[in-house]
Amino acid sequence: MTENHLSRRELLQHSGAVGMMAATQATCLEGAEPPHGKADSCIFIWLGGGACHIDTFDPKRRGDPQEKKAGSAYNPIDTAIDGVQVCEHLPETARILDRTVLVRSCHHDVIDEHAAAVNRVHTGRPPTGTTIYPSIGSVTAHQLEARNDNVPAYVVMGYPSTSRGPGFLGARNSYLYLTETSLGPAALKRPHDVTSARQQRRNTLLDQLRSDYLRRNSRQRKVNNYVEASVAGMKLAGPEFMKVFELETESEELRARYGGEFGQRCLLARRLVQTGVRFVEVSFNLNFINGTGWDTHNEGQENQHRLIRQLDQAFSTLLMDLEKHKRLDRTLVVVATEFGRPPEFDNRGGRGHYSKAFSMVLAGGGLQTGQVVGVTDELGKEILQDPVSLADFHATIYAAMGIDPSGLIYDGNRPVPITDSGTPIERLFTG
Question: What pTM was computed for the model?
C-alpha cells in the first residue's frame, strides 16, 4: 500500500471523524441565533418589467445594439465603494453607494412569463396547485403589524395583484392600495355630500349588521378576516392617517429633488413609514417615459436611460432624506425586479428576458452596507460567486426586519415555513 492510500480501518476512522464533525456543525447551526437586524419598516421599490442588470447595477463591457455586439448599453462610473462601478446614468446613487448593498447574483428559473416571475419574487417560492402563498409584504404585516394602531401595516402604490396579496393569511394581512399619492386611498375618503353626522349613523347601522352576521357565522375564518379588515379600514379614514398624504406640507425644494410622480411616491413612502407603516411597495413602471417601462424590448431600450435617471434621482433622494430624519438605519430600502435582461440585443435593438443572473439592491436597515454580494461573468450571464436565491433574498429581508426566516406561518392548521429554506446573507449582519 502506498502512502497515498488509506487502509479500510483508517478510512472508517476518518469517516467517523468527518461524521462527528458534521453532526456537531449541524447542532451548532440548529442552536444558533438567526441574524437579527434593527429595521422596523421596509420600502420595496418595484421596477416592473425586468430591469437590465448590466445597464444599471452590474455594468460590463460596452455593447452596441446597431452592430448587435453584446454588452452594456452605457459606460460605467466609479462609486463610493472602492473598485465598484455602476451605470453612468446613476451618478447620485454612485455618490452614496456606501449606504447600499448590491446583490448581483440573484436568480430563479422563470424566464418568459412576467406574471409568474412577479409572483416568484414577491412570494419567494414556486407556486403549487393547492396553496396561494402570501407576499413578502403580507408576511411582514402578519408578523409585525403596524407600529401605530391608526395606520395600515402594508401599503401598495402600484398595481394590485394576487402576487402582492395575503394568500392564505387572509384579508386582515392584505394591502391598502393607493392610486393617487396626493389624495390618499379613494375608498377611505367621505363623499362631499355625506356629513359627519350622517357618516356616524351609517357606522352605527353597519355595526349592528356586522354584529348580527358575526353571531351567525362566527366560526368562519374568512368572515372574521373580512370583518377585521373592514373595521381597520374605517379606522384609517381618520384625520391622523389622512394627513400623511398632504405632500404640500413638505418644502418645494425637497419635492423638486424627489422629481416626478415616481419621486413623489417615494416621498410619500418615507412619510408612511414615519407614521408607522411596516411595508410600502412603490411601483416604478411608467411606460410613457420610454414607451415600454423596464420591459425594454425594441425601442424601450433606446430610451431606457430616462427611467434610470429618474430612479437615480428618487432613490438617492429617498436615502438621504431618510438619513436626515434619522430613519435610514431603521428603514430597509429594497430595489427589486422580476428578472434581468441578456447582454445580447434583439433584431430591433432591445433585449429579451433573463433570470439566471440579475441584480437587486438593499439599503439602510442597519445592515453592513458598502458591499457587493455576488460576481457574474464578463457579460453578466453566469454567476461565478455567491449565488443568492429568492428564498435567501427574502430571508435576508426578514432577518433585517427582526423576523425569524426559519419561523412558521399557518395555512389553517398546516404549518408553512416563512421562507422556502432561505438563508440570510450572513455578512450583512456582522461587523
Answer: 0.85
